[in-house]
Specification:
The protein is an alpha/beta fold and about 325 residues long. The protein folds into two domains: about 250 residues, Aspartate Aminotransferase, domain 2; about 80 residues, Aspartate Aminotransferase, domain 1, CATH 3.90.1150.10. The chain is built from eleven helices and twelve strands. Strand 2, helix 4 and strand 3 form a beta-alpha-beta unit. The radius of gyration is 20 Å and the shape is globular. Bound molecules: pyridoxal-5'-phosphate. Pyridoxal-5'-phosphate binds next to helix 3.
């Protein structure tokens, strides 16, 4: 019951333990095509470029930033928790300028502030934001933010590490451009893979770059030769074969359950948890309208020893809950 990695189904663990075959084996390539189709379903997109990057969510984040941004670009970055600040780090390390839009921890990104920043910076080419801020439990309105970006000729980079399969996420309907996630949260898979999907506009932007992508490993024009092509796939890196078996199985489970049911399951569990916590007098940090059902940030009651409660839960009940991060360290618990 921490903020991730989540518990993994025995079905997924069993898939993980199947014999390892070659990453260019026709059987494996067939499975990769299924992973792509299942990820398209989970992301609600028809983007042909929908893959799992062979590394954790942070690499998915970096994939989107290194491919879409060049030195000298301006990027509007929304920061309402830990992960928005990591976006800033990515932008600055690429020699680009990050225009920060700050909101309090525990609040959703404020579209009015974003609009003001986009108006003040017509040179900006990207709007980057976190859909579900794992450090605070706040959900931002990706559809509205994406519409604002389009009005100002910006593409979007969207962190959906904690939102994919946990709350509605509609990549095509909301016209999101570069979207990354993680395997270990609401997909309940092993950590270490990062689903990524890119719109045609994002691909066009990558193809019109004036400079090479700084990272060889994350340069998606090179990775694509491995993830697509009619039968002729070329070696790029040794794929984490067994982890991809696991991702395949977890995506099959989401598909069989049906996304709407998956979202509802998280909401139902949230309601149960909320009523239990309410009866203990424990308060949520995030306003009801912006609250993530899958990541519950609650205030540590006055006088209660944070670490003692967490270690008692772990040692006596075999339950892990998360500590507060950054500005919320020592002030909040995060319950998945
Ligand atoms: C919102 C968000 N973005 C990015 C990451 C980074 O993912 P990973 O730890 O898999 O590298 C996390 C991890 O918790 C996250 O919650």
């Amino acid at each position: 019951m921490g903020p991730g990695p989540s518990d993994i189904s025995p079905r997924v663990l069993q898939a993980l333990s199947q014999p390892t075959i070659g990453h260019l084996d026709p059987l494996f390539i067939g499975m990769m095509d299924e992973v792509k189709a299942l990820l398209q379903y989970a992301f609600q997109t028809e983007n042909p470029f929908t893959i799992a990057v062979s590394a954790p969510g942070s690499a998915g984040m970096e994939t989107c930033f290194v491919n879409l941004i060049e030195a000298g670009d301006t990027v509007v970055v929304c920061r309402n928790g830990v992960f928005g600040d990591r976006m800033r780090e990515n932008v600055e390390r690429l020699g680009a300028t990050a225009v920060m839009v700050d909101d309090d921890w525990g609040k959703a990104v404020d579209p009015e502030k974003v609009e003001a920043a986009l108006k003040a910076h017509p040179e900006a080419s990207i709007l980057a934001f976190v859909h579900a801020e794992t450090s605070t439990g706040a959900l931002s309105d990706a559809e509205t933010l994406s519409a604002l970006a389009r009005q100002h000729d910006c593409l979007t980079i969207v962190d959906t590490v904690t939102s994919l399969a946990g709350v509605p996420l509609k990549v095509d309907e909301w016209q999101l451009d570069a979207v990354y996630s993680g395997s270990q949260k609401c997909l309940s898979c092993v950590p270490g893979l990062s689903p990524v999907t890119l719109s045609q506009k994002a691909i066009d932007k990558i193809q019109s770059r004036g400079s090479k992508v700084q990272s060889w490993f994350l340069d998606q024009s090179l990775v694509l030769g491995y993830w697509s092509g009619d039968g002729k796939r070329s070696y790029h890196h040794t794929a984490p074969v067994n982890s991809l078996y696991a991702l395949h199985e977890s995506l099959v489970m989401v598909h069989d359950e049906g996304l709407e049911n998956t979202w509802q399951r998280h909401r139902d569990m949230h309601e149960l948890l909320k009523s239990g916590l309410n009866s203990l007098g424990i308060q949520f940090l995030v306003d009801e309208a912006d609250r993530l059902p899958q990541l519950n940030a609650v205030a540590i009651p006055e006088g209660v020893d944070d670490a003692a409660v967490r270690s008692r839960l772990l040692n006596e009940y075999n339950l892990e809950i998360g500590a507060g991060l950054g500005a919320l360290a020592g002030k909040a618990w995060r319950i998945g």
